Every structure is written in C-alpha cells, then in structure tokens.
Amino acid sequence: MKPTIVKTKKKVSAEQILGETRTDAILSRWRSSIWKLLWKDLLIYTILYLIIGLVYRFALPEEYQIHLESFIKYCHTQNAGLPLTFLLGFYVSLVVSRWWSQYCSLPWPDTIATFLRAVKMKEGGEEEARITRRTIVRYCLLAYLLCVRRLSIKLRKKFPTMREVIQTGLVTEAEAERIGEEDSVRQHGGSNWWMPLLWSTEIAENDVNISSAPVYGFIQMNIAGYRQKLTDVLTYGHVPIPLVYSQVVHLAVYFYFGVSLISEQWIIWRKPGDEEVDLYYPIFMTVRFLFIFGWLRVAETLYNPFGEDDEDFELNELLNRHFKVAMTIVDENEEHPELKKDIFWNQADPELIENPEMDIEEGFGDDKEDFVFK
Q1: Which one, of 222, 208, 213, lies nearest residue 119 by Cα?
Q2: Under a CB-based contact definition with an 8 Å cutoff, are residues 135 and 203 in contact?
C-alpha cells in the first residue's frame, strides 16, 4: 500500500486556526483595540486642550498671555522629569504576568476523566461503574463552577443563586442543600465549593474497582491537584495587587497629562528664541497619550480577567468544553478504531510524505494540495 497524492482545492479561514493569525491589518481592528479603549478619553482630552488654547490665544489680554507663557515653560520643564515609563512599565508587567498565571491556574478535568476511564471494571457492573465515573466528573465540574463563580461577573449573573445551578443538571436539590446557598463572596471559609471534590475522593475510595486499580493513586492525586489549582485561582481574588501601588501609577499618569494640558500648549511667537512652529493641534502629545494611556488601559482591562471585557476569560465556553470532553471520555459510547497495520509497516526508515508541489511560502487563504492515503 502506497500513499497517493490527491489534489484538492481548499481554503483555510482565520477562524480555523488557533491563536493570532494576523490575516488583517492590526491597526484597523476594533474589538479589543486601543481605539475602542481610548477614543472617548482622547476626544475629551483633545477638546480640553483646544479650549485652553483658544482661551489663551483669543480671550486673554497680552499681559496675561505673557504670564501664562512663563507658566507653560515652567510646567514643560518640570513635567519632563517624571519617571512615568518606569512606574507604568513595571505595573503593566506585573498585571500581565498575573493575568496569564490566573488562566494557567484554571484546572482541566481531562486527566481525572482519563484515569477513571482506564479503570478495568468487573463484568456485569458496567452501568454502575459508568454512574460512578460520571458522578466523579460531574462533581469536579460542579466544584469548578462554584469556585470560579465567586470571581466571575459573567458566571455570577448567569447563576445568581443555587437554583440556576440546579437547573444546569450539575447538582441535584439534595446535593445543593448539603452544599448551602453559596452567597458568600468575600469571606474566607464562607463557601463550600470544595465539598463536591471531597465527595469525589470518598466515592473513589469506596468503589472496589477504583480503589483496587493501579491508577487509584493517580486519580486521588489529580483530584487533589484539581482542588489546589482552584484554590490558587481563588487566592487571586482574595489577594489583589496592593491598592497603594495601583493608586500611585494612576495618580502619576493623570497628573502627567493634567499638567500636559498646560505644558504642551504652543506659545505665540513674539521675539527670537520663542517657538517658531505654531500649531493648534497637539500631534505628538496625542501619540504620547495613546502610548501611555493605552498602556494603562491594558493594565485596567487585564486586572480582573473574570469580568466582562473583550479580553476576559470565556468561562462559559470553557465550562461547556470541559463538560463535553470529560463526559465523553468517561462514557463507553463507541469502540476505538480497528487495529490495522499502518502504511509505514516494515519500512526501515519511514518518513512523512511532503508534497513537492506545495509552496509553503503561500498564505493560508491560497489553494493547497492535500495528500490522502489510499
């Protein structure tokens, strides 16, 4: 059996590729862009700048204009020495690192489901074993929802009470009564989100097939690791970045641009030595505003990734994915594919076949030639 190259016409869209494909111009995007975050702020700031400039040029008498020009020069000199880049850069770096760590701390139930599926069951007890596996996975997902719901605005709005959680099917009314109302958000120890994981360990311990299986230790270890990851996520909500640090950074940025409304005014030329360029619109200050305020808005957007901004975590999609995949793993829906010899059988030096006619430099949207084994 030899592989045969089959020519096909196929286009790959950006939605089919995971990650950033950069198929369109970065600066022209709107969702999650700097334009969406800053257009209102920049508009208000520019209007304030122009109002001050018009008052300075046309409303003040010449004597007051001269006094204001001295003040403009003074503010320009003093404002230049503010260590804004250092303060803001360190703060944004801290927030971005914290944002990524929170996502990496979110646990996935796949490993627990895989180890449960690896347990060999006795004949005649398949249905009971399936109930056990599905119940353990369901409890893991329930603990996930109850824990992250304490942090996520989206999940809190979608599941404001345990009644809505019961309607999802993840928990029964009897189980919900044992867990409690789950109304406490800020208090340590005010939630029983960990209780379903405790039930999972007890079920695994009391099940003869699981407790006697070689993978029993791995199952209990992964349930404990699952709980530890949820605890790490919850810790980020209990211990935010110190308020004083955020206040210092915001105060520095707002003070800098507040003073810039005066210090960046173009001075009327009166004598040699004055600025010879006279512009009404602050071109370079606008660019500086986009850079620095954009930096600050990035930090504000990523500060709480469990909110409702464009870049916040899509927890609804994650929950749906975890439920679908984990339940599929522990179920016996279908047999694995039939075992057959692969096309590289008995080859001393097997190699993957590459299509010599394929131009790897072409873009994703161009026609490609796929190779299919026949």
Answers
A1: 213
A2: yes
Please, are residues 82 and 257 in contact by the beta-carbon 8 Å criterion?
no
Estimate to the nearest angstrom the gap between the alpha carbon of 188 and the chain centroid. 25
- 345: which residues sit within 8 A by CB, 6+ positions away? none
pTM summary value: 0.78
* Spatial contact of 302 and 292, defined as CB atoms under 8 Å apart: no
Torsion of CA 88, 233, 118, 217, to 10 degrees: 110
Distances in Å between the alpha carbon of 245 and those of 45, 79, 80, 262?
25, 21, 22, 27
Distance of alpha carbon 265 from alpha carbon 280, whole angstroms: 8
225-238 residue pLDDT tens: 999 999 999 998 88
The DSSP secondary-structure symbol of 363 reads: -
Q: What gap in Å lies between CA 182 and CA 238, rounded to an integer? A: 16
Residues 6+ apart with CB under 8 A from 203: 132, 135, 136, 139
CA distance 328 to 305: 29
Nearest to 303 by CA among 153, 134, 142: 153
Work out the burial of residue 154: count CB atoms within 10 Å of its CB; fewer than 13 is exposed, 13-18 middle, 19 or more buried: middle
Identify the helix (H) or strand (E) that includes residue 224.
Answer: helix 216-238
Q: What does the CA dihedral 292, 295, 300, 302 come to, rounded to 10 degrees?
A: 180
Q: What is the tens place of the pLDDT at every residue in 53-77?
A: 888 888 888 888 888 888 888 888 8
Three-class secondary structure of residue 371 per DSSP: strand
